[in-house]
Each structure stands twice: as structure tokens, then as C-alpha cells.
Write a sequence for this structure.
């Protein structure tokens, strides 16, 4: 007792990291066939980093799973492949294009056409194909109001659906991952992180992220206040003029619905400053959330990320 | 979020946020107490709401025909919640100031959702309990206070809201404070702060209100920013539930987990449970390099010197500090499912990283969370009810009392038919509680059974000592003079060559009863244990002197029953309250006056005078010597 050491104060990032690692290990221990859902965005990159830590010196004991809309920025795909090669992890790709080709889903039409909603079917199909019983996701509770009610261990029925009004109570750090055959879980180890926490952590840990997050010149056009990148996937209207702007992305999703922000932030310090003074949430530029007040809850119920 | 960190130059070196810590708190209140408004206000005034969020709730307030922006919409995220204008599920919210990051578990207040309150409270360092100043203290708030104390949330803030509706009247505030204090006496809470606020108008939420100059304390946010949190960690008892085994090759076998409590260094001697085998910690491995020490909360991987078979669900502890290892124990259980708990039905229990089968053997009583009375003789525990239950597991568990170690003293119950989490439990100290039930049962069966087993009979010891065994029980309020008289009495007896021992309240509370608080239940347990110890000394031939406030007749009666008829000598030490407060030997009355403690016997809690004392000594009238002489005359 006399050797009792005083406890250092734990920084909030350390505590969040400890919690994230704990949840990852619970998943590895409680489930047979988990995957880590990987989008190439900053949250899933942080997740990957936590997984490296959780199982060191061993390898990450589960594959990455990427649901590819076919409308990704090329930088995202390059980064994904780079990571897979560097750390020698297994990658599973679920293709929305394939789902369309197989007639599982129908492509949206019109100027706002997006494959975002179609991903859900591809995701559920791919989870089923690989008999995944737990899918680790980088969802955070601060992102969106429906996510604020999400559990760390979020139960999905045999149809992959979420019943937000009937969730299992989750107490202390005791995560109940018991399920019946065919059911599965979504698990969110970084539930308690905010956007700022993610950026600070990336800076602190010097984690590599895709170049899209840093300011660069790009041809963009403005649609209802959102700057969309000019890509082959977006149907630009005649009155939507192309401009070259210095922009960066706060979130990385499908190119059809992820807006850029005008920004000069070209390194981590500047990004953190920008996030600190931002007056819009990061999803403020996501067309997919703007469709209705409960767009996220509706999508999540059906099985979205 | 806040603009103040905008000047940060280098995030790797001097970013203020990297030195921030984390406060997890929960908010509880009735439907209309204004809880969501308070959270909205904290966000709004600390500039943690984004423009698009504000726009969205403005739009939504307008469309539902409300005049002012409804800040509650920020937290009520689900469709059903917005439609019914109520909070259904625990919502987690985040905000940060330059000092701290906050995680709020916002829990609904309706009766039927008590399970959510328990859920939110399970991870909280602090609870904010909202009281509507215009309505006074309602059943709901009492219930929330009780749950907070049951879940051992270290800090309570009673936010007396809607002060604007009562003209910011100090009297209204004081009345609610004293009413809450009165109630809190029965609870096991230590740190309570009372703040008068108006969440709607912003008084005393983020900035101090000019409308209430009579209030001397700090605004809510300032309090949240400054309350000490990690002081509550248990850094003594090293407990490491093994979560996962990492074995990348033949040369490495590491045991991963999160340090539940205590600390550990390479070279420290450890015991592995359940095998009981000993070894030494070889390394504490992380990807950033090996650590010299691991603290509570750290996720690490431990390697040990010897080849021992260790797997998930095992626990690594210090060689000389092991938890209770048993497969039967008692716990407070909160039931969380529509289908009531059934006795002797097989459930699954999840405790630390261990999962095992469990049966509820006995439902000792149900807590009435409104009156805090225990209701005995019931057979069912239903949704949102809390009871004391005796469990038996198929495998032994390694646990501590929840009161001294939340991580190793908590568990959940799962229904194997549905896989749903149906109960949440907080363990009581294993061995003692079981003894309690045993002795309860033993007493019921035969009052004499306890005298049988002594090898050397008391009479033999008395003969050799040259005097009989005695038991003096000095009861009375703090400051009455019990300890002073007892010490002098013990000295005089000792000097006369008598076998004597003094058992004192503070002494046992530091050791034997260190896991107990001051709730009526804990006070009862405190006295029960002391009674058992006193009996051992008594049977050993001593003149036992016990000095305990022991305010309840029922508890002292329990002790009396342990001794042969007529042996237990109760001495009531009394004095006027003024004298006791003037003496105030431990500074308790001063603390109580400042509101730092509640439930102090002789101040805001009653002392039940003995019904049939052998002696009553009023220390306003008698000196210490005179008092001691009176007691000695009884021998």
C-alpha cells in the first residue's frame, strides 16, 4: 500500500481510446465472424488504427468490409488499397454496381440521384453472404440525433433492421452480444467521440488520412448551398456553373452527396482550427441527411450504417 | 465547439484539448421539469449548437406551432419522441469547454422508463436531478435521487429549475433544499450541491444570475467544469478481467483487458483466478511500447513469467489482494423487463468478462423507491422494481462489493430465451452478506444454536481471568461523550488487571466496515457486524466496551439477541444538543450546518433512546470520572 502511486489524470482522448479498444476486443471475443466496415473516411481510419492497437502484437483478427457505391472519389479507393497492402489485412468489397446489375436495387434518376440509399441493400447482402455476425462501424452519437440513441452493441434482427424503441439496456461496460442464428450486431466503438475528438486523435497519433481532407483546388458547382465536386457520377444541371475553388471535405462519402467546404486548411493544425470554429455540423453538407427530418433514423431502421 | 482553442498552434504540443479530461454525467427529471431545456441551454450558451442544428429545430418548432425555439428538440431525436414530445430512450450528448469534455446521458423521467435512468446512471460520475421550483419535490425526483445513490454516483447536483416562475424567491429554494436534505438522510449520498436555475431564461446555467444575488454558489457549468472526478477511482485493488488472449506466434502469449481498478507494474506478483496459481507480470504491452505501470481504465496486454493456462473470464489480481470468490452472493437488482423475474429460473449472468448460468434463489425484499422502505414477503420483481436478491451461479465469480468497486461489483442478467438484458445488479459484500442470511435463518430456527460450538467454554476463561465477561454498549449522539467515557473506562479496567477491549465506531469504519455508508441499511449492517465481533470478544472472556451512535433500537435489539439473556448492558450517554454541537469533537456538526453532510444523528436525524437502559448518563451533569464510576458500580 505504501508503494501506492498517484494516478495520472487521464486525458479525454486516452479514455476514448481505451474505451474503443475495449469494445473492439469484446467484439473479437464474443463473435465468430466480425468485420470492420471501412469507408475510407476518417472515422473508419481511426477505427482501423484502434484495431491495430487492440490486437498488437497480433494482427487484426477480422477483415475489412468496404461497400463500394462505384461513385467513390478515386483518392478514397487508392487510400483503402494502400492501407490494405501496408498492413496485410483481408478486404471484402460489396459492390452496389453488382446489386444494380443483379436487379437487387434500382438506380435512382434525376439530378439528385444518389447510390447512397442503395448501399443498404448491398451492405445487408454482403453481410449475409459472408455470414457476418458483428459489423464494426465508425458511427458516432454526436453525428446525428437518431445516432444519439444508438447502443455500442446494436442488435439487428434477421432482416438487418434496427428497432430504436426496443433496444436492449446497456449498462456499465457490460455489452450483451447474444443473438439468435441469422441475427447480427452493429458495434460502434467510437460512439462517444465527437468530430473534434477524431481530428485531435488523428493529429495526436499522426494517422495517415486521404488527401481529400486537405485543401486542394477542385472544379465544383453549387447546388442549394452545397458545393459538389464535378465528377462523372453527378448529373450537373445546365444552370449549375462549374467553378474552380480551393476546397476540402469534412466527411467522405459517396461523391454524389458529399459536399466540399471552401477551405484553406492544408494541414492538421489548420483543420483542427477550422473544426473548432465551424458553425455547421459536419453532416451539414450531406445531401442524404437533408431529405427529411428523420432521414437518418429511417435509413438506420432499414439497416444503413 | 468553443472558439477559445482557436489559437492553438501545434496540436501535438500545446493543444489545450489534449490536456482536457472527461466528465460523464446524467440528467434526470420529470417530464416537465425542463431537463431537455437545460441541456439545450448548456449547449446554446456554451456555443455547442451548430447553425444547421439550430435551423433544423427552429423549423421544427415552427411547424409544430411553438412560439419560442424548443431547445428540447435538440435531444429528442427519435420520430416517436418528436411526435409525442417526450423522451423515450437514453440519448447521449456531447459538448466541450476548454476545460473539459462532457458526455451527457440524458434519461427520460417517466415512471415506466426507470430502466433508462439506471442505464444512464451506470456510467455517470455525476447526476443532475431537476426539480421544478413551482411544484416542489415530487416522487419522481426522490426516485432519481434514490437510483443515483443506489448506483453510487459520487456527485449529485440538485438543480432547482424554473426559478423565474417563483420570482427567484430564496425562500422557495430553501424549502426545497431542506426537503431534499431530509429525504437524502436516508440515502447513501455524500456530495450534494444545490443550484437555483432557470433553464429557459438561462439563470445560473452558464453564467451567474443577477436575478438571484442571494445565491452564493457557482453556476451549473462552472460546477460541472470543476468537480473532481478521478478521485473516485479505486486505485488500490488491482483487478484485471481477461478479455481476450493474443497469441500471434509461439513466443508471445498476452492477456488483453482493461484495468478495472488498482495498478500494476512489471515484476509485481500476481494470482490468477480461478486457478489460484501465482506468477509475476513480465511486461505490460501496448503498440506504443511497453509500460512501466498500468492504471484503472487502461486497455493493455499483460504477459506473465510462467506458462499458465489463462483465458477470457479469468482474472489477474495481486497476490495479497484478491476479490471474493464465490458462487452465491446477494445483490440489489433492478428489473428491466415486462416479464417479471422468476425465482429458480435459469438466467444468464454477465459479470466483467465472464458469463455463467445463474438462479435467483431468494427475493429477500423489494425496495419501495418512494418511501425507501423494504417490503418483505413478496414473490415477484417486476419491471422497474428494485429488490435485494440472493443468487447462485454455476461457476464461481470473482467480485467485490459494488460500493468499493463498480467494475467488479456490477452484472447484468440476460434471459436465455430472448437474449435480452432483463436485469442490472449491484453486488453486496459476498461473505458477510451470506453470513447475514445464514445467521438470520439460524436465529429463526433456534435462538440457542449459536452457543454450541465453542471449544473452550466462556466459563473456563472467566475463571482464569478472575472476572466475568461483560458487554457494555454506549449509545448516543455524536459529541455526547461516549468515546471519552469509554476510553477512561477501558484504561481503568486495564489498570485493574482486567481483560478488556474497546470497539469504537471510527475504528471499525476504517477497516472491518470500510465498505459501508450511512444509509439505514448500512448502519444496520455496521451494527450487526460490530455485534458479532463484540460477541467473539465476550466469549473470549473480555469486558467489551462498544461505543456507537447506533441510533436505531432495532439494530441494538439485534445485537442484544446475540448475548445470553440479561448480559447486554445498554448505557445511554446523553447531553443537550447545544452541548454536543459546542463540543463537536469531529467537526461533524459544523459540516452539517454548512450542508456538507446530511443525516447526522443529533442534528438532522433522530437518535432512538434505549427503551430499557441499565444506566443513563447525562454528561451535562456528570464529569467523566463520575460517569466511569457509575458504570464500574454495575460490575
Amino acid at each position: 500500500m505504501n508503494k501506492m502511486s498517484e494516478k495520472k489524470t487521464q486525458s479525454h482522448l486516452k479514455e476514448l481510446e481505451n474505451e474503443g479498444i475495449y469494445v473492439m476486443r469484446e467484439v473479437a471475443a464474443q463473435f465468430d465472424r466480425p468485420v470492420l466496415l471501412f469507408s475510407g473516411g476518417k472515422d473508419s481510419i481511426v477505427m482501423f488504427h484502434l484495431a491495430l492497437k487492440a490486437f498488437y502484437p497480433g494482427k487484426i483478427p477480422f477483415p475489412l468490409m468496404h461497400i463500394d457505391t462505384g461513385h467513390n472519389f478515386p483518392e478514397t479507393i487508392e487510400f483503402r488499397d494502400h492501407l490494405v497492402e501496408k498492413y496485410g489485412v483481408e478486404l471484402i468489397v460489396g459492390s452496389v454496381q453488382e446489386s444494380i446489375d443483379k436487379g437487387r436495387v434500382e438506380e435512382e434518376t434525376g439530378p439528385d440521384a444518389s447510390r447512397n440509399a442503395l448501399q443498404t441493400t448491398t451492405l445487408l447482402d454482403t453481410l449475409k453472404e459472408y455470414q457476418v455476425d458483428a459489423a464494426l462501424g465508425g458511427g458516432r452519437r454526436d453525428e446525428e440525433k437518431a445516432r444519439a440513441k444508438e447502443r455500442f452493441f446494436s442488435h439487428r434482427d434477421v432482416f438487418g433492421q434496427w428497432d430504436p424503441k426496443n433496444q436492449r439496456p446497456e449498462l456499465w461496460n457490460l455489452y450483451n452480444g447474444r443473438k439468435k442464428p441469422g441475427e447480427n450486431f452493429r458495434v460502434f466503438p467510437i460512439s462517444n467521440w465527437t468530430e473534434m475528438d477524431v481530428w485531435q486523435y488523428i493529429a495526436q497519433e499522426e494517422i495517415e488520412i486521404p488527401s481529400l481532407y486537405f485543401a486542394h483546388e477542385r472544379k465544383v458547382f453549387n447546388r442549394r448551398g452545397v458545393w459538389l465536386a464535378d465528377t462523372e457520377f453527378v448529373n450537373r444541371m445546365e444552370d449549375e456553373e462549374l467553378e474552380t475553388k480551393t476546397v476540402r471535405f469534412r466527411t467522405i462519402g459517396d461523391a454524389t452527396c458529399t459536399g466540399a467546404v471552401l477551405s484553406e486548411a492544408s494541414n492538421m493544425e489548420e483543420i483542427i482550427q477550422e473544426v473548432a470554429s465551424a458553425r455547421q455540423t459536419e453532416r451539414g453538407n450531406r445531401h442524404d441527411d437533408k431529405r427529411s427530418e428523420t432521414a437518418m433514423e429511417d435509413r438506420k431502421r432499414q439497416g444503413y450504417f | 465547439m468553443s472558439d477559445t482553442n482557436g489559437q492553438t498552434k501545434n496540436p501535438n504540443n500545446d493543444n489545450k484539448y489534449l490536456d482536457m479530461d472527461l466528465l460523464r454525467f446524467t440528467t434526470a427529471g420529470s417530464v416537465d421539469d425542463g431537463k431537455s431545456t437545460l441541456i439545450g441551454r448548456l449547449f446554446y450558451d456554451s456555443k455547442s449548437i451548430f447553425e444547421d442544428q439550430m435551423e433544423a429545430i427552429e423549423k421544427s418548432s415552427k411547424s409544430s406551432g411553438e412560439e419560442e425555439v424548443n431547445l428540447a428538440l435538440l435531444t429528442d431525436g427519435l420520430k416517436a419522441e418528436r411526435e409525442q414530445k417526450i423522451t423515450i430512450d437514453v440519448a447521449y450528448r456531447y459538448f466541450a469547454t476548454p476545460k473539459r469534455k462532457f458526455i451527457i446521458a440524458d434519461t427520460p423521467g417517466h415512471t415506466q422508463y426507470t430502466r433508462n435512468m439506471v442505464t444512464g446512471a451506470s456510467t455517470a460520475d455525476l447526476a443532475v436531478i431537476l426539480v421544478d421550483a413551482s411544484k416542489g419535490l415530487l416522487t419522481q425526483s426522490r426516485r432519481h435521487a434514490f437510483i443515483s445513490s443506489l448506483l453510487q454516483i459520487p456527485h449529485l447536483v440538485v438543480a432547482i429549475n424554473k426559478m423565474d416562475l417563483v420570482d427567484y424567491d430564496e425562500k422557495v429554494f430553501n424549502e426545497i433544499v431542506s426537503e431534499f436534505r431530509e429525504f437524502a438522510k436516508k440515502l447513501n449520498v455524500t456530495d450534494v450541491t444545490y443550484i437555483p436555475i432557470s433553464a429557459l431564461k438561462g439563470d445560473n446555467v452558464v453564467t451567474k444570475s443577477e436575478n438571484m444575488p442571494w445565491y452564493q454558489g457557482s453556476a451549473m457549468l462552472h460546477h460541472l467544469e470543476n468537480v473532481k472526478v478521478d478521485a473516485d477511482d479505486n486505485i488500490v485493488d488491482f483487478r484485471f478481467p481477461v478479455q481476450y488472449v493474443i497469441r500471434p506466434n509461439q513466443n508471445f502469449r498476452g492477456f488483453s483487458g482493461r484495468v478495472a481498478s488498482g495498478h500494476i507494474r512489471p515484476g509485481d506478483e500476481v494470482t490468477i483466478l480461478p486457478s489460484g496459481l501465482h506468477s509475476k507480470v513480465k511486461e505490460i504491452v501496448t503498440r506504443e511500447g511497453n509500460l512501466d505501470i498500468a492504471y484503472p481504465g487502461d486497455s493493455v496486454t499483460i504477459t506473465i513469467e510462467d506458462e499458465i493456462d489463462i483465458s477470457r473470464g479469468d482474472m489477474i489480481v495481486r497476490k495479497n489482494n484478491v476479490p471474493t470468490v464465490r458462487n452465491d452472493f446477494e445483490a440489489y437488482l433492478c428489473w428491466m423487463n415486462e416479464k417479471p423475474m422468476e425465482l429458480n429460473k435459469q438466467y444468464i449472468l454477465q459479470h466483467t468478462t465472464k458469463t455463467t448460468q445463474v438462479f435467483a434463489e431468494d427475493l429477500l425484499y423489494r425496495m419501495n423507491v418512494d418511501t425507501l422502505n423494504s417490503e418483505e414477503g413478496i414473490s415477484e420483481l417486476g419491471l422497474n422494481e428494485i429488490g435485494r436478491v440472493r443468487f447462485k451461479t454455476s461457476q464461481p465469480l470473482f467480485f467485490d462489493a459494488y460500493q468499493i468497486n463498480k467494475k467488479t461489483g456490477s452484472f447484468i442478467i440476460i434471459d436465455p430465451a430472448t437474449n435480452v438484458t432483463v436485469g442490472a445488479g449491484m453486488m453486496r459484500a459476498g461473505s458477510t452478506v451470506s453470513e447475514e442470511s445464514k445467521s438470520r435463518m439460524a436465529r429463526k430456527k433456534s435462538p440457542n444454536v449459536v452457543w454450541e460450538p465453542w471449544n473452550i467454554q466462556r466459563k473456563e476463561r472467566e475463571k482464569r481471568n478472575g472476572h466475568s465477561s461483560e458487554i457494555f454498549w454506549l449509545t448516543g449522539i455524536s459529541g455526547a461523550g461516549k468515546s471519552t467515557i469509554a476510553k477512561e473506562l477501558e484504561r481503568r479496567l486495564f489498570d485493574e488487571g482486567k481483560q478488556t477491549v474497546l470497539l469504537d465506531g471510527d475504528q471499525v469504519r476504517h477497516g472491518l466496515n470500510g465498505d459501508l455508508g450511512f444509509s439505514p441499511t448500512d448502519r444496520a449492517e455496521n451494527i450487526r457486524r460490530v455485534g458479532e465481533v463484540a460477541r467473539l470478544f465476550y466469549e473470549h472472556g473480555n469486558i467489551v466496551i462498544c461505543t456507537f451512535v447506533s441510533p436505531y433500537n432495532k439494530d441494538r435489539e439485534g445485537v442484544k439477541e446475540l448475548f445470553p439473556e440479561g448480559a447486554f448492558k445498554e448505557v445511554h450517554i446523553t447531553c443537550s444538543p447545544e452541548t454536543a454541537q459546542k463540543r463537536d469533537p469531529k467537526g461533524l456538526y459544523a459540516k452539517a450546518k454548512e450542508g456538507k453532510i446530511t443525516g447526522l444523528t443529533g442534528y438532522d436525524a433522530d437518535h432512538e433512546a434505549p427503551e430499557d437502559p441499565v444506566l443513563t448518563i447525562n454528561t451535562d451533569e456528570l464529569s467523566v470520572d463520575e460517569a466511569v464510576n457509575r458504570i464500574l458500580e454495575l460490575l
Notes: Chain A has two domains: 12-197+294-302, 210-289.
